[in-house]
Design a protein that fits this description.
Rossmann fold; 7 helices; globular; alpha/beta; about 25% strand; 7-stranded mixed beta sheet; about 200 residues; single chain; 7 strands
């Protein structure tokens, strides 16, 4: 079964007052562990709900790579960044099912509501891990596996146990999980260092 993929024509739903009240982007990025100077991969960035505030939070020494399969959404993000005078966001269009990430020393990756849309979750997470240096952080935001008014079908959602297994198999440390808003979970972990890999 191919998971449902978000329709770019519905992009207005990615940034609205309800979402901002439920999941304030700056507060969420602080909880995710974002720091000044970070080199961030925002995977599945959409119209920049997290990319834009992240670009301000990482400051002039930091950088945000905003990655998405939708050229329409990336164009909107570029326009938004230009009008706000933001110059440390770089947009990258990738193909569905084939994640191409920049060859950079990224210190953090953020994925919000993306993993449940991916068919081959293992190879996707392997690609993310390969783009991060050892010790770099990963924050995954996903729909909680319960019935909620909006969001994907229950069968497409990832349970907390399944997420733990997926991330550890991809070479990340045991993720810490916390509730985020009314219907989401935040998982934070790090790419294992060679020493941790031997444990």
């Amino acid at each position: 079964m191919t998971p449902h993929v978000f329709d770019p024509d519905e992009r207005h739903r990615l940034d609205n007052p309800e979402r901002r009240a439920d999941m304030p982007p700056e507060d969420t990025l602080v909880k995710a562990g974002l720091r000044p100077g970070d080199i961030v991969l925002d995977i599945g960035c959409g119209i920049g709900y997290f990319s834009v505030p992240a670009s301000r939070m990482v400051g002039p020494k930091g950088h945000v790579y905003a990655i998405d399969i939708s050229g329409v959404m990336l164009a909107e993000l570029r326009s938004k960044a230009a009008s706000a005078g933001i110059f440390n966001i770089e947009t990258i269009q990738t193909q569905r099912g084939k994640l191409s990430l920049p060859d950079t020393s990224a210190t953090m990756a953020v994925m919000s509501n993306i993993l449940h849309e991916v068919e081959d979750k293992k190879s996707f997470l392997d690609s993310v891990g390969a783009a991060l240096k050892p010790g770099a952080r990963l924050a995954v935001i996903e729909w909680e596996k319960k019935e909620t008014p909006g969001g994907p079908p229950l069968k497409e959602r990832i349970s907390e146990d399944e997420m733990q297994v997926l991330l550890k198999k991809a070479g990340f440390t045991e993720p810490k999980s916390s509730r985020l808003g009314a219907a989401h979970m935040l998982y934070t972990c790090a790419r294992k260092t060679p020493e941790q890999g031997k444990e």
